Amino acid sequence: MNKIRVRVADWQKDNAELRRIREAVFINEQHVPPELEWDSDDSSAVHFLAFEGDFAIGTARLLADGQIGRVSVLKDWRGLKVGDALMQATLEQAEERGLKEVKLSAQVHATPFYERLGFKIVSDEFLEAGIPHVDMVRCA
């Protein structure tokens, strides 16, 4: 396997890659309705793409208020630290922007991953797009 690299993506220029990954993970695998996946925050968010070689395999986004979301890795690359690389890039960007706190809504099965990165659960479990989630926060 090649080394995984992550870069800031441009919503316009990298739109096809961002959409391909999010559609595969959220819409096709997890059955999130497309109208819930795509929102007005995409145009103003800082997006990230993870690559193995020249092939995009994961995404994440950071909103101006410190909300991290749409963290997704294509199925064949899960368990290979792609999520760690995406989150590291996202957290570094949040720090560069002076955000003292970042937050996310995590799918319940993914909470151990986020806890390992310093996030704490701050809500009861709730359903989002029919999937159990909890809100999590990480302070700088």
CATH architectural grouping:
3-Layer(aba) Sandwich
Kindly state the mean pLDDT as a whole number?
95
Number of helical segments?
4
**In terms of quaternary structure, what is this?**
single chain
Structural class: alpha+beta
Gyration radius from CA atoms, angstroms: 14 Å
- Report the sheet with the most strands, covering strand number, pairing sense and barrel closure: 8 strands, mixed
Q: At the fourth CATH level, what is the homologous superfamily?
A: Gcn5-related N-acetyltransferase (GNAT)
Q: What is the topological layout?
A:
Blueprint: E1 4-9, H1 15-29, H2 34-37, E2 46-52, E3 55-62, E4 67-73, H3 82-96, E5 101-107, H4 111-116, E6 120-121, E7 126-128, E8 131-139
Parallel strand pairs: 4-5
Antiparallel strand pairs: 1-2, 2-3, 3-4, 5-8, 6-8, 7-8
Short description:
The protein is α+β, with helices and mostly antiparallel strands and 140 residues long.
